[in-house]
Structures
1.
Amino acid sequence: MGDTPLDWGSEWMSSLLWVGEVFAATVVGFAVVVWLLSRRTMWGRQFRRLTFAYFRPTGRDWASWRPVGTVLLLLLMTVISVRISVLLSYSENGLYTAMQELSTSSFARFLGIFGVLATIHVVRSMFAYYVVQGFTIRWRLWLTEHMIDDWLSGQAYHRGQFTASSVDNPDQRIQEDVASFASDSAEFGIGVVGKGLSLVSFTVILWQLSGPLRIFGAEVPRAMTFLTYFYVFTASVIAFRIGRPLIRLNFLNENLAASFRYALVRLRDNSESVAFYRGETVEKAGLVTRFGTLIANSWAIVYRNIRLQGWNLSISQLAVVFPVVIQAPRFFSGALKLGGMQQTVTAFAQVHDSLSYFRNAYSGFAGYRATINRLTGLLDTDRESRALPALVHETSDELHIDGLTVSRPDGQPLVEDLGLHLRTGATLLVTGQSGSGKTTLLRSLAGLWPYANGAVSRPPDTQALFLSQQPYLPQGSLRAALAYPERPTIVDDEQARKVLRQVHLAQLSDRLDDEANWSRMLSPGEQQRLGFARILINRPRIAFLDEATSALDEGIENSLYALLCCELPDCILVSVGHRPTLGPLHANHLKLLGGGRWTLSATAETQVPTAA
């Protein structure tokens, strides 16, 4: 019976055997449950997609097996925790029984047992915390790298905008959702195992402490146990019905918060343009509208949580007196001692908490489901973007285009059946009315535009450079901006200063390693000159320039093209522009006429520029 004290002299050996047997059963049960959930439930299949690769050993080294080993260690810590809780309940039983019997020696003995168990519990808790945190950090690191690799693979970060299921705020999903997923997965996993073991262990104690009870004229044996299960299951079913809308509301809340945050970032990045237009009123109206929608959804979550938490708190408060009321007749009749009554309260609390785990954690689990949906949604979009068609480039030292057709997303042709051949060192100017497809043609040649087909041969991506009207400047030093997309270490001081002087940016020669937001510090013209410096540093075999001199005067434009021809005589130059001054700087002219039509001709008066 639960009111009978344990044999504390041999209990340490019995507990070790119990821990070993239960640990083995827990490992098997945990593996079976995870396998079933990953096959039978939608969120389980999503979980498997996100994590199984991390836990699958790839070799015999410790690093490969550490994730699985850490999970086993956490399961062992959880089993030990449950056993200590059971032993603590028996030590409390002995303490209260000793007080009832006025036995100071027994009281001192059980107080010592309690002290030993409490010390073990504290040490175990601290060690388990360290293991859990280390496990979560390593898991987050792996998953973040995995998500970034998948997002960058096949240029999904760019091509994802062309998919039917394009996602919003991938940055937020990678940064915040990965962190939440790792920590919540560890918390829920350990919580479920711990509560499951507690449920079984303390149900046995509750069963031993339970007695018969007459209900509506019928005697129910072990009534305390049955009433406990009925009480918690009924409360949980009602709680699930109240809290179910929280899944949708939490998912929507993350999206609305990310949308509002993106609007703020976009305003900061375009602050100068907004300030020129004096667009503060319009921007504020847009921000207030987005924030108002977020607040409305937040209130919906508050109202739903009030109903859910109100129900849970009511059930929890009633649970305080529930076991005392049920066991009171047995206590007053002398069938149960004070220690047994106290152990009943403890066992009921453990069983109640274990059965109520998902009821109390439903709001958190709703957010967890939303996190999984966002992460797998990003993976779905990445996969869909990689499945989009793209031009397959053959490798060649020259640029050869045969039968290239470029269309709009609605199928209307921009360029139809284009054919041209440029040898090493050749130059081509692409012109046409706005909207005729000049930039889209360059995107197609880069493999970024999915609505194109035909045959293209050109130097490989590692030897091709695309320079837009506003060159991309990465975060970091000026040296990093010069070397991009290569690493900054490829540029030494002497080479960097020489190139800066050549592109008329000598004033920046002493700031090579300054960390700054260069896209804001440099004017559009300076940024374009920096783009030409990047070409000189990377020395590509083919360069595509899209309005790359639009912010420069004609003199500097001429000198920069002369510099490229002098320094990179074998580089193929393909330029897009409107200025008539570009014509004499290129030997070939491709004019897009709209509706898919085009003409290709040699420039009438070609002036191959010379470096000053």
Note: Residues 250 and 367 are 6 Å apart (CA to CA).
2.
Amino acid sequence: MPEKQQAVWQHHLFLLSFFLLSASIVLYWIVSQLTFPSDHASLPDPVPLATPAVVTYADGTKETVTIPGSFPIHEGTHVAAVSFHLPEQDGDANCLAVANRDVNLTLTAGGQTLLQYTAEKTQPVGKYAPFSYLFIHIPRDCWGTEAVFTIHTPDDSIAPAIGDMFYGRKYILVMSLLHANLPEVIAAAMLLIACLISLIFSIHYSMRSRKILPLLYLSIATGLIAIWALANSPARQIFFPNYSAIRDVAFMVVAFIPAPFLFYLNCLQKGRYVRLLHGTAIVIFLDFLAQSAAYFLRLRGWNQMFLVSALLLTAVVIEYFLTLLVDIRKGRIHEYLLSAIGLIFPALAAVVQAFTYLQQHNIGGLVAIAGLAVLLAFEITASIHNARRTAMERDQALLDVNNLSIQAMQALAKTVDAKSSYTANHSERVAKYACMIAEKAGYDAEARRRLYYIALLHDVGKIGIPDEIINKPGKLTDEEYATIQTHSVIGANILKRIKIPDLFIGARWHHERYDGRGYPDGLKGTEIPEIARIIAVADAYDAMTSNRSYRGIIPQEKVRREIERNKGTQFDPQFADAMLEIIDSDPDYRYHG
């Protein structure tokens, strides 16, 4: 197996091992959480509190109700007092947890004010306090006494309400809240991590290939969904000091999230419907700005404008399916078939999420996360497939260019050799001998390949030498010999213009001598580049074993003695010895053919 291919397979094997080990860790985590006994089994469950109560409105009207629950709206009334009886203390219970939505609350019991929650203090912008749990410390002497919740509603559109109530130890209540929302939090966190990895991969790929992957926009969109799930979960108040603002972030994300989805679709469909999608994107940006202005001016809360955001997201889904149908009809769906299949899952998840929201069932973001995780997996697969295909096309293009370059170099070498009938195929033979010497010296296949093309063009400078000098049958004059010597510099200047590293080395220094008496620069010993020292031996061997205008082929044994005699003076001893080994293995000049 070639060394480069072997390295690629080793790299793939390493990646496969890494992903298998990572998958096994994740699998163990999932199995352990689903099948192992719970470490919370010894903890008591929070005790739900449901009790009769009397609600007294600001106009003096009284009504018997059951809490938790919501109560009728009295026009013009923003305050209601709900009287109820706290239960007797159960064990070491010290806390009452109350689910609060959109109201300000005060709790008094046993003559003490135990809670005074005002949304405006924690939410200086926006209009309404979001849903949260209020954890109220209940002193020992207050259990079993009469308690009063005073409810302040922001305006007439909000009904007075007391949400679900639980009592017990505060630690138990907090752990219960976290445990109830932990699957959603973990799923959202893992999705966010996957999005960050996908985003880094997409940016890296885009910078290298100068081509934007659809995965880039999908990573942004999916990451926003993960942020929405984390910010929308009731468990947010355990992790963040101001959970009111965090919930607002969830609604902000919903208002903005259609935009990166549009760019994702536009990238998938290669800009075919850019006017339609960009028109929708402009509407989304304008809506986001309008909602932001209404929020910061305290005209509306983000949660009150959620329906508009949901409608825009629905419009994006409809546009996608319409353009998808057009692409199916025109036979273009094959361009993004994997992505199109993957998009079915978040679309179904969105329908389920919307239905449960309308039915007032809180399922959190698990369904949406699951749908997007499947889409992300499909898109990552599609991106890897496309990246591999692009790499193969690029490699093929490079191979075509390399083949063209090789053919051009070979043609140039033949043109130079054709200047004299005595030098036919000289350059190719020198390149072959140089590679044989390099193999003896331990060069790998890639290094020998580079050496071959450098040696192939070692005499290219002769293209600038007059034919009458090259083909002169007799001995050259000093002036003619000086002209011949210029071919080293001419060749180097020609090859330096080609952007292939070290291509000029053989041309410039193949006539340098190990003892420093060569030309054009008089380099000595290891000052001479190693490649040039190899070519010098190969060039001298071929010159001695080929016909010349002034002599015939020198016998092999005499050639051997000449190389042996000039070892350490004209030639590098290491490479001269390698050439001698080759000569000894070829007494009949088989390699010369």
Note: The first strand starts at residue 47 and ends at 48.
3.
Amino acid sequence: MVDFPMNSCFGGSGVGNTKVVVTEAVVDNTTKIASVKQDTFTDFTVTMSKALETATAADFSMVRDDDNQVITVKSASLDATDKTKVKLTVYTSLTDAKTYTVTYTAADEAKTQSSAKVTVTDGTVAAVNITPVEITANKATKIEYQTLDANGVIVSQKGVTKQESKVDVTWDSLLGTMDTDTSEYILYNVGDTAKFTVTYHTYKYDTTTGAELDVITKDFTVTAVKDASVITQYAYTVATSEPYDWAKVTPKQTIALNDEGAAQRTAYFQIKDSKGNDVTKSCEYTVESSDNSVVVADGTVKDGAPLNPVSKGSAYLMIKDGDGKVVSTLPITVGEKRTITTFKLSSPVLNVANTASTNAKETCVYSDITAKDQYGDDIALADLTYDNKTGNHTTAIDPKKDAKTICAYAGNGNKGSESYIIKATDSLGKSMTTSLRVNSIVPTDANPTFSVVFLDENNKVVSSVDTTVAEDANATDAPASKTLKVVVVEKKNGVVTGKTTDSTRGVRSVQVTKNDGTVIAKAVSDASVKITSSPAISDTVMLNGGVGVTGTAVSAVADAITITAREKSTGLSEKHLGVGTYTVVYELINGTKVEKAAASFNVKDTQTAVTAKVKETASSETTLSSVLVDSTGKYVEYYYGSVKVAPADVDFVGVKATYSNGNKNAYVTNVTVKVPVAGNANNKITVTVPVNKTFTTSAAGGWS
């Protein structure tokens, strides 16, 4: 079992001996319900006799005892720190003070059931509360009030500036600042306090004295601390690069003896606080190996710890605080050298046309390769070769070991089938083989069909493009463009015969549309490819190349057009395509007949998100640009992932805002800025960042 102390990312050695268990509990199918407690009108905490591994809504049911009315369970989720507790949410607000039975059905073969009863609230307010009462100094934190019944069930919860009719909340703001739009409060120094008073009114009065009856009033002290967060979740894994999406990570704690050089593994960590914020980059803890004769580790939780294998065996990664105290130990194993154990083709049979031009990339038919080691990881290949077993024909195949793919073309009038033995060899010299058959087909169809094909910058047939700019802090040169070359190909007998060069068929138009049907670029027979509108930067399409024309009777299909999804210019990586689906439609003229060929491609963007943290909203500035982007970061800070962007490296592009109060108030929905990728000022991207804050100015004319 591995434990991790509370507050371990925020200085010192944690708070007391409180720990968060982060390993998965062993599943016990005889686990039963111990108790049920209502938290809100729709939320319940179910405490189990033992920890669960998973919990779903289907595992639980609820009925009202007096009439057996079934209450549908909307969702069930395990507590992040205590897996004996399950949060149940139902669709119906339960406030009738009646008794309900909650039943859990175990996953064992017998479907063992256990139950517990709970009497729900009647909604009568008996107490008030303020949450949280500790906030991080100099950090805007939402303060909420709660009204509760006699058993602590939350009757209502709202921001302190969004009070319901029966509630009054006042606060002492001498040491702090309240954002009335968001109920976010700032105390600037550790130790500063603020008094909040919550009053719940009944609006019932004594007929004799006129005094209000059963009023509930309570004072609360909110205190600023170094950091009010606590760690509730963390994960770690060893990999060749930092995980992009931890939700999709299968944790690994094993490295191999030959994980060196380009194959070196690093231990990466993800840590979240009690509010679900990723605070990994705030952790200043170091990582060391418990046994340098097995593995050497030298790094940090924040940046990851490179691992150097020495010998087979087991050790621990020791997490140390600033005082050198070990606050956690994480198991790590060094195993045998990686060697290939799995080798297969996505398509063991490929069909090609015998009339296709040899080595014409758009006619290439691919079979992708899966090569894995004994640990289930992809393994690099030192060599990828083939042996032509039949040798009767000259069908060409082109193995690419780094791309892990095989391209097959036909051509030269060959027909029939050929068999190949494909051999993959790893860095240790171990080889595995598999078979590939290429069928060379004679296309006899007199009525061909036409298809649109997309090729990437490596001339491989693809269906998508990722506009992400690589996070290489050392890169000063322009990263490779992300492009799609678009060609129309002819198919006969189900196989591609080549690019369309039939002189009776010409291009009348080519257009690119977004998934909502908006035409964003179009070429017609009397003009070169051009932009037909001026969309926002994230939606711009750049089409390079043109369509050869002779009046309205185009003599032949011109060479491919190129869609540039991403390119770099003057230090800025421009992303011309937003995330989504795009369709390319060709109109082909065949005498008086118009034929169409169309296909769609997807754009994804796995770029790390950029967020804005608003520090101050009141100023004497006259323009929003001077507040939203300030070289000192006085008003707004920007973060690339969890790493703060240097204020001087942020460039203002535009803002979406709504003005009021004589232009003195500006509600900023979002701001568009240019920020460096992973701190590399030579490589910036344009991003639109949500803000959703009201900024005020004391300037006489308001915001200009």
Note: The first strand starts at residue 3 and ends at 5.
4.
Amino acid sequence: MICCMKYVVSLIIALALWCVGASAQKSEQQRQIEKLNLVYQQIRNAYVDDVPLGPLVEEAIRATIKELDPHSAYLTKKELEAMRSRMKGQFAGVGMTFMSYRDTVVVRGVNSDSPAERSGLRLNDRIVSVDGRNVVGIDSDSIMSLLRGDEGTELTLGIRRRSEAKELTINITRSVIQRSAIDAAFRIGDIGYISATSFSRPLAVDFMREYYGLGDVKALIVDLRDNGGGIIGSAVDLTSIFLKKGDLIVSTDGRIDHEVCYRNNKPHSIDIPLVVLINESSASASEIFAGAIQDHDRGVIVGRTSFGKGLVQRTFELGDGSGINLTIARYKTPSGRLIQRPYTMGESEAYRRDTMRFMHPDSLEHDPELMFTTLKRGRKVYGGGGITPDIFCEESYPQVSDEMLEMVESGLIAQLHIELWDGIKVETLSERYPTFEDLLTENEIDGEIIEIIEKLTKCRYSELTDIDKLYLSTMIRAEIASQLFGKSAQRYIVGRVVDDVLKRAVELLESPEEYERVLSGDM
């Protein structure tokens, strides 16, 4: 009976939602809304049992939204609050990262000048309790909800530390954690590199601070790989740094607002050769940025075809703190091409599993109707399926063996780091590596580390391929660089040794003739 009721509630809510909006069917809309109200009245007044309608309605809303496009979504109150926190780039917490290893929460990073650092929390500390509650074996989401809370509130952590025989007690006062969207920034000779992980509100400000910190660079690489997007305003602000005043950045076309154009309203700040890195996980605001740079012939796009998420969502609150992210428009790049790739209503899983879209530079069907030209130099570009790079790179990293890939996917690298730092002395490493560049010159792995690898993988290190050994060596050195010198040093080590896409971008910027040839469409 409950299953039947779920179906009825799903059906009537779907009918009500589908009907709202079309002015030519106002009388039909009103009849459906009245029908919906009547059904609820009958369930409440006449049904044999008391029925909690809340869970049924929530499930019905989820089912209805699922039948729309792949990016519309229902959000509970908790999910909506989390989304807004991400968009602001801040939250109230303790300022650390962690992972579960052997059913125990292990601290993997402590933010500088955070409550966690001020309290004395250290890398590789094991958190065994939170406010007296045993947390061994519970999932990461539950841990996160325990650690976060209102600003100024306190929590008590029970800590196990390898250097201490007894359990430690650490008291922490939560505060607002400012989370920069800039993941790394460094120089490779005269070329600057800045990586952004999302498009949260302060992105452009953080970006310019890192850019000025690089000094007098002659060219710039902006890495948006795996950047899933964020706020359109942040995309507009970041793009404005590179385009001329008055240049169109993006436009939206929808039902509520038929056409809205976003233009650069300020003088550009950076006018040097530019390469933008994208991949199949670069989406939404990342694609707005890359599309505008490409359409204005402002820089070269390198990597793999982007995700193809060109739908605009607006959040509508439902009165109880929950809400729906409803698609209300489509993005268009300055040349007029659509970013969104094709999808079938109600088939979001098939849409997300579509991996062929980025496996080859010609994976998009280059329909003449979807062909556009760039605004300054008239190069051919295509719409309807993400942003196709000007220079396609098949893989970002060397092809490790299937065995190594399986090890990595099972969490080998993270586990190796934990085991490594349990027995390592930071002071010794600091003496051995005075600068992070020193980590570039050492490719051999110590015997002690080989023992850890063999213990975790149950395989002989000597049997690994040369590429596998290089990959493992690089990841280990990158972790050491991260702990000694910060995230930028970690990314620098990976980028210089095994990141073929970054290497290609550097090669391009070191050859002004090739850079100009690509922008001229002469390839």
Note: The chain has a mean pLDDT of 85.
